[in-house]
Automatic annotation (TrEMBL):
Positions of the DJ-1/PfpI domain: 8-175
Top-rank taxon, per record: Bacteria
PANTHER family associated with the record: ARAC-FAMILY TRANSCRIPTIONAL REGULATOR, HTH-TYPE TRANSCRIPTIONAL REGULATOR RV1931C
Name of the protein described by the UniProt record: ThiJ/PfpI domain protein
Length: 215
């Protein structure tokens, strides 16, 4: 089986847990399956400030991003700005022509801004503090052509959207299982000591979703 490369896109004010959940799961999965690769990209290579002030370094920009199989768009408080940033949106659209595009948390609203969710079922974070509109409700209001769905994650084939916060772990495990085999995902969940329920609570468009890779 050829290697599978995950490209993770970050931006200023991205949520730390979205970075940690995706990269952390992939890093542990690589110990199970060395064929898993990952790279961090931002609009400009260099420091990216997370919402808690921590800085990480993106070695690649959207103009010199290496080829990949999956592009993962993370969530964060800056999603309203990022979802209107044409450089980011064109990068996402370009990747989507040949690869799988996935989101975790409010990253789904960025995919919606790129037009990738039109006519599709999709999910995002379903809960918010009292008195604050949930991201799922905001997505349904801003993008009425998107079928907002309450689910841990939604797999529409070329586009996968994940729920909020810790569900980034579930979404990443799902992608690993789909592309590298169920056994790799299960073993990764075991070594990170995560009680993973597989596809329970997920939504899948069976007509558009490819079969999972052989274990």
């Amino acid at each position: 089986m050829p290697n599978t490369k995950f490209i993770i896109h970050a931006y200023d004010d991205v949520e730390p847990i979205d970075v940690g959940a995706t990269f952390g799961v992939l890093s542990m999965a690589k110990r199970v399956d060395p064929g898993i690769e990952m790279a961090l990209v931002a609009n400009k290579a260099g420091p990216v400030r997370l919402s808690n002030g921590l800085e990480i370094i993106a070695p690649y920009s959207v103009t010199n991003c290496p080829a990949g199989d999956v592009l993962m768009i993370l969530g964060g408080a800056a999603w309203p700005q990022v979802s209107k940033d044409e450089e980011t949106l064109e990068f996402i659209r370009s990747f989507a022509r040949n690869g799988i595009v996935a989101s975790v948390c409010t990253g789904a609203l960025i995919l919606a801004g790129a037009g990738l969710l039109e006519g599709k079922s999709a999910t995002t974070r379903r809960f918010a503090p009292a008195g604050i509109e949930t991201p799922l409700a905001q997505m349904q209001k801003l993008y009425p052509g998107v079928k907002g769905t309450e689910a841990r994650f939604v797999d529409s084939g070329t586009v996968v959207t994940g729920g909020g916060v810790t569900l980034a772990v579930d979404t990443t495990l799902h992608l690993i299982g789909r592309l590298r085999g169920a056994d790799v995902a299960k073993e990764t969940a075991r070594i990170i000591e995560y009680r993973w329920s597989g596809n329970d609570g997920a939504f899948s468009d069976a007509a558009n979703t490819p079969k999972t890779a052989a274990a």
